[in-house]
């Protein structure tokens, strides 16, 4: 979560005729090579690009970003689009979630976290090739023409919608307003379009000389990471909820891709890839705040709070989401004029699109020396009711933060302990928050999965994290001379 203000993404019209496509044996299609990115498509992407960068932590710079850009442009050339190298913009995002996506105009994005999960250059090319495939096949245009003539960006996340409150009533309203940009880019594609993009990515890999099987191995790593995250967060299912995934569950696509690429070969460039990503930030960037167990701590904003037992948090660029079986919340900020009561009321007012949402009263108190105000409203949600709570804190005359929480009716006290945990942190505490980074090392004689796992900068699930990070199965062992990744504390 950064201190930047909420950005409203503009709606952009889509009115394109689909270009002719040539069928592929794998079920995908490649647009006619004579159909480059159009001026209208380029304009749409150019207008959305700076807003997406802001939503997703910004574009990284330096040698690692340049490397990702180079691989992305090299794979984009394989799409057959005219002027592909010049027409595509490839961005490495400073985001701690595993995600990659593309928008019209040749704008392709991948997060540093997803790159950290990869184990060779062919996997990086496969992910970027999949996204290039979406652009080449004009999937955004097809999807939005079916669903909405006016938007390419859809909703940038929600704490409610299908997750908490169903798909009707207040759930949709809160889903539109409670954004979790860095995690929740939800321009969804159909299964057929995802399969087509997989097939296109496989074709591009083969044309570029990469091992096409890399498309399957990176999906397998992503599925393994999803399963591990689910277990660590106490979720019942390894599948990411719809609001937290750009693409369908990767586990459901692994076997199809592996079967399709069986027997294919090519280069993977493992060691050179690992050398190029050495030192990449892993997990939360302290500039956006970090999650340590149940604690969120932001050294730049000088604040901290603790989630309730049994809840897990996801740190986004603008908000922190807190999720559990008995409720969900986001921690964020809004414009503040020095009046906390008015601030709380303004958050409620922003939710009142289809029905008036007004707290019964707004109370004030002091929390760990911070002026605070809060209110709760009982809201009809279809055939049931929920309690919506706004709890706000003043950190300066012109700066305030708040929780927006939703619980089943009568259970608004679920988050009371969290509300009471908000506090300022000292300069000394802030200085102790350092990032985790990737450290690429060479396995020596006598090193084992167990011994290297103990060097991971985590207090739990060290071996599981190490295996998933390096694409190792439960029975895979290490060989002397092999390069592997560990996660250590940076400086």
From TrEMBL:
Q: Which cofactor does it need?
A: Zn(2+)
Which UniProt keywords are given for this protein, alphabetically ordered? Answer: Hydrolase, Metal-binding, Metalloprotease, Protease, Signal, Zinc
Task: Select a single GO molecular function from the record's annotations and give it.
Answer: metallopeptidase activity
Secretion signal span: 1-22
Q: Gene3D superfamilies this protein is in?
A: LysM domain, Metalloproteases ('zincins'), catalytic domain
Q: Which residues form the LysM domain?
A: 439-486
Q: Which EC number(s) does the record attach to this protein?
A: 3.4.24.-
InterPro entries to which the protein is assigned, alphabetical: LysM, LysM_dom_sf, Mito/Outer_Membr_Metalloprot, Peptidase_M48
Q: Which SMART domains match?
A: LysM
Q: Does the keyword Repressor apply?
A: no
Is Hydrolase one of the keywords? Answer: yes
Q: Which CDD domains match?
A: LysM (cd00118)
Q: What class of enzyme is it?
A: hydrolase
Top-rank taxon, per record: Bacteria
A Pfam short name:
LysM
Name of this protein: M48 family metalloprotease
Per the UniProt record, the source organism is Qipengyuania gelatinilytica
């Amino acid at each position: 979560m950064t201190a930047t203000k909420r950005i409203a993404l503009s709606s952009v019209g889509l009115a394109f005729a689909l270009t002719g496509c040539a069928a592929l044996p794998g079920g995908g299609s490649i647009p006619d090579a004579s159909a480059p990115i159009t001026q209208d498509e380029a304009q749409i992407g150019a207008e959305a690009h700076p807003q997406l960068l802001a939503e997703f932590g910004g574009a990284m710079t330096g040698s690692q970003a340049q490397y990702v850009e180079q691989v992305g442009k090299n794979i984009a050339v394989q799409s057959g689009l005219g002027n592909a190298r010049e027409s595509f913009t490839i961005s490495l995002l400073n985001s701690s979630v595993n995600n990659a996506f593309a928008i019209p105009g040749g704008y392709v994005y991948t997060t540093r976290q997803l790159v950290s999960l990869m184990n060779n250059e062919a996997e990086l090319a496969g992910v970027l090739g999949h996204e290039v495939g979406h652009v080449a096949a004009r999937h955004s245009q097809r999807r939005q023409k079916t669903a909405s003539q006016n938007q390419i960006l859809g909703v940038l996340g929600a704490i409610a919608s299908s997750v908490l409150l169903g798909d009707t009533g207040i759930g949709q309203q809160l889903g539109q307003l409670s954004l979790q940009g860095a995690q929740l880019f939800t321009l969804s594609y159909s299964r057929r379009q995802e399969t087509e993009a997989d097939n296109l990515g496989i074709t591009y890999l083969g044309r570029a000389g990469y091992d096409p099987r890399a498309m399957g191995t990176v999906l397998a790593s992503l599925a393994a990471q999803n399963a591990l995250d689910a277990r660590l967060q106490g979720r019942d299912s390894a599948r990411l909820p719809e609001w937290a995934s750009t693409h369908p569950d990767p586990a459901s696509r692994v076997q199809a891709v592996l079967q399709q690429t069986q027997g294919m070969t090519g280069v993977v460039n493992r060691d050179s890839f690992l050398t190029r990503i050495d030192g990449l930030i892993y997990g939360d960037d302290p500039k956006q705040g970090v999650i340590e167990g149940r604690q969120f701590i932001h050294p730049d904003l000088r604040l901290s709070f603790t989630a309730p037992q049994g809840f897990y948090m996801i740190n986004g660029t603008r908000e922190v989401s807190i999720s559990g079986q008995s409720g969900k919340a986001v921690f964020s900020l809004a414009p503040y004029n020095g009046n906390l009561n008015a601030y709380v009321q303004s958050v409620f007012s922003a939710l009142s699109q289809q029905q008036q949402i007004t707290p019964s009263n707004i109370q004030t108190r002091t929390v760990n020396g911070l002026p605070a105000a809060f209110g709760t409203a009982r809201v009809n949600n279809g055939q049931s009711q929920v309690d919506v709570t706004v709890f706000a804190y003043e950190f300066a005359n012109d700066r305030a933060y708040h929780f927006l929480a939703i619980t089943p009716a009568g259970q608004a006290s679920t988050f009371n302990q969290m509300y009471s945990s908000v506090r300022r942190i000292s300069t000394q505490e802030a200085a102790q928050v350092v990032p985790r980074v990737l450290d690429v090392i060479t396995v020596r004689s006598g090193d084992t999965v167990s011994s290297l796992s103990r060097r991971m900068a985590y207090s739990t699930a060290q071996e599981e994290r190490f295996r998933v990070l390096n694409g190792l199965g439960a029975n895979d062992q290490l060989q002397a001379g092999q390069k592997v990744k560990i996660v250590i504390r940076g400086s």
